[in-house]
Amino acid sequence: xxxxxxxxxxxxxxxxxxxxIMLEKSGYKVCGIAPSVPKALxxxxxxxxxxxxxxxxxxxxxxxxxxAGQLTxxxxxxxxxxANTNQxxxxxxxxxxxxxxxxxxxxxxxxxxxxxxxxYRHAQKQKYxxxxxxxxxxxxxxxxxxxxxxxxxxxxxxxxxxxxLPFDFLWIxxxxxxxxxxxxxxxxxNSNSFRxxxxxxxxxxxxxSSRDFKVWNTNATPNAGKPIFNGYDxxxxxxxxxxxxxxxxxxxxxxxxxxxxxxxxxxxxxxFFSHAPEMYxxxxxxxxxxxxxxxxxMIEQSIYGKDLSTAVQIQExxxxxxxxxxxxxxxxxxxxxxxxxxxxxxxxxxxxxxDTSVLILGESGTGKEKIALTIHKLSPRASKPLxxxxxxxxxxxxxxxxxxxxxxxxxxGANEKRIGKFEQADGGSIFLDEIGELPLEAQVKLLRVLxxxxxxxxxxxxxxxxxxxxxxxTNRNLEKEVxxxxxxxxxxxxxxxxxxxxxxxxxxxxxxxxxxxxxxDKYSKKNSRAVTGISAEALASLQAYDWPGNIRELEHLIExxxxxxxxxxxxxxxxPTPSTSAFAEVGDNFKAKTMEEMERDHIMRVLKMCNGxxxxxxxxxxxxxxxxxxxxxxxxxxxxxYEFVK
Length: 646
What we know:
- Residues 334-563 form the Sigma-54 factor interaction domain.
- The chain has 26 helices and 25 strands.
C-alpha cells in the first residue's frame, strides 16, 4: 500500500536526496524537492502533497517559518528538519504549530518515528477542531481587557510575547520625535516572571544620573535598517549607544533584535535583548514582521493606554462572610470563575472522553495533579486505576524497574517479581508528574512504550501489551530542555498532543476571593475552628500579592492564618518576606526560587558543611539520608561544580 505523498523543502541536495531515499524505501511517495519557498508553493499547487518536510533556512529571502504560516492556512501538515535547535529557533518554530521537529543529522529510524508521531498528532487534532490555542492577538486583547493595574497587564503581555519572540529584556520607545516619555522596559526575571520599569526606575537601578540619561537617550538608537545584532555587531551597537551599553552591562545582555513600527504617525522601536550571544536569526526577524499587528496593539495599549484598574475597595462591612460568595466555578473540585480557568475546563471536557495523550503545563502549585485526576474521572477509564508517578522522586538506578517492572533475579536485590507502574495502570491511566525530570535513558524506553504499546520487564524476555492512557505534567520549559539536550525532541512531540496550560494565580486574581472561602470552609471543618470570614483589608492584601507559590501557597497561608486568628475572622495576613527561604527580593517584587534551585542550594550547603565529602560516615549522602549514587546523580544534573565535591 502506497503511503502519503510528501514534499521535501530543503536547499541542500545531498540531504534532500537522502531523505527521498529513506522515504521511498519505507513506502512513501516523494512528489518533489524544493530548495526555496517560491518553488515549494509551485509544487504544492501542482502536486498536492499530504505532508511537507520543511527546512528552516532556504534559498532566497524567505525562510521555512514564512512558508509554515501559509501551510497552516492551507491546512497542510508539516515537520521541520533543521540543524539548529537553539531555544530561540524552537520557540519561533513552535509558534507556527508544526507536527514535529527533526534535528540534522538523523537516522532513518528517527525519521520514521517522527513521521509516525506527526501522523498520530495530526489524527488527534482532527478530533478537536475547537482545540486551537488563542493566537497572540487574542491573548493580548484578553490581557488588556482586564480590570487590573496597567503594569500588571504589561507583565502578562510580556510573558505571552516571549513565547513567540524570546527576550530577556525588551525596550520599546518612540524614535520620531525621540522622547523618553512613556518608554517601556520589560525584564524577564525568570521563565515565569516579568518586571516592568519606568525610565526613572531603570536609571536608579543602573546608577545613571538624569542628566546622563537625557543626553544618552536623545540620540536615536543606531539601526541603519539592520535587525539582528550578534557577536561583533552587538559589541558595535554598544559602542554607538551609551544607554544600550549601560543596560546590557547591568543585565548581562549579549545580542539584540531591532524592529521598527509606524503607529499613529509616530515611529516606535522595539529592541529585544537576550543573554545568549548568538540568539537572534533571520527567523526571529521574520516573526516580528508576522506579528506586526499584535506588536502594534501591545504598544497602543501600553504606551497610549490608560490605567483603567480600580483599587480594591475596602467594604463598609468589617468582614466578608462565605454566604456572600457565590461559588460559580466548581468543576469536579477545581474552584474558580475566571475566564482563563474556564478555558481549562472546556479543554478537559473536550479531551477527557478520548484516549489522547495530555500534557499539563504550569508553575508549581497550580494544581496539575488535580487536573490529571479530573481528566481520569471524566473518562471511560474512571472505573480503572489512575497510577501516579513522581518522576523527580524515582531513584536513578530503579527507574526502569519502577516503571516497567522486573523479574525475580533481574539484578542484585531483586528477590521477587515486581509489577511496574505501567502494568498496574493497564486499562486505566498513568500520570507521569514532573516528566521533565526523567533522564534521557528512561525517555528512550518511555517513547518505545508509547509507540508500541507494550512493555518488557527488566530481566525478562517476553513483551506484554498494555492499554494505558498517558497524562504527563511539568513545570519546566520543555522546549528549553530540548534545546539544551536534556529532553528528547521526539518524545516531546509525542507527549505534546493535547497541551493544557494552567494559569498562574497572579493571572486570575479574580479567583482569590472564592478560593479563600473554599479554604476557610475546608479547614474550619478539618480543624474544628470557628474562623469563617476574612476582613476586607486582609483580602485586599491577598489580592495585591503576586503569589509565586500559586494556589498551594494561598492554601497554606490561609490554614496558618486561621490558626493565628483571634475570633471568627482573619484580620491580618502574614505574607512572606524577602528573607523567607523560598523567595528572593527583586526590586519591588518577589522572585520564587524553583524547586530545582532550592534543592541545588541545599545540597551545596551540605557539601560545604561536609567539606565536599559525598560518601561514607559524615558524608553529604549520610547527612541528606539518600544513597550516594542518587546524590552523585543530582550533583551532575544540577550542575554543581567540582570545587564543592571531593
